[in-house]
Amino acid sequence: MRSLVGVDTADGMIDAFNAKIGALLQPEEANLAAVCVLLEDADDVKVQGAAAALASGRGESESIPYRFDLIISHLMLHHIPSLPAILATMFQCLKPGGWIALTDFEDFGPDAVIFHPKSKREGVERHGIKRNEMEIMINGTGFDQVKVETAFTFTKEVEDEDGGPKKEMSFPFLICMGRKA
Fold first, then answer.
1. b/e per residue 95-133 (b: at least 16 CB within 10 A)
2. What is the 3-state secondary structure (H, E, C) of 19-50?
């Protein structure tokens, strides 16, 4: 049986995750857990504890420390101070043959900054991710079968940087994939 451990640094996101779990018809059978932590170590006690609780709830015994088959993230990378460090941690969190699938908006130049309004730029480390840099970093971490490509384009209303009227703007999103051999 599959299980999912959600990780976020914001209590509000963990609360939203837990509310969604609670709304399930059979939340005790969902095999879902969420922890609030900035994951900097594959053996983090909160993540390992959540994985252990899910495994014991299924009556399964897995080898400890727990490792994962898949790590996904969406709109997280542009908030992380060190992309090489988080990629290394993700690599350590995976089982051999495990995959990453990471999406974020692309840094396509100076206009990418308006993805976030000025009032919401605190905690934003970069204004999108760069295709070539991501490919180099993912390969350099040790992943194979690396692909970084446009996944979709998201159109949203954005504030004009100079105080003009709001406008619609399209942002390309990249998906970054790699496998731990």
1. eeebbbebbbbbbeeeebbbbbeeeeeeeeebbbbbbee
2. HHHHCCCCHHHCCEEEEECCCCCCCCHHHHHH
CA distance 77 to 105: 9
| Helix (H/G/I), strand (E/B), else coil: 54 | helix
pLDDT one-digit tens code per residue, 29-57? 678 899 999 999 999 999 999 998 888 76
Question: At 12, phi and psi to the nearest 5?
Answer: -65, -35
Give the residue among 97, 84, 86, 94 at the shortest CA–CA distance from 145.
Answer: 97
Contact 52, 23 (CB under 8 A): no
Q: Are 71 and 90 in contact (CB under 8 A)?
A: yes
Top CATH class, 68-181: alpha beta
* Overall pTM > 0.85: yes
- Average pLDDT for 136-161: 97
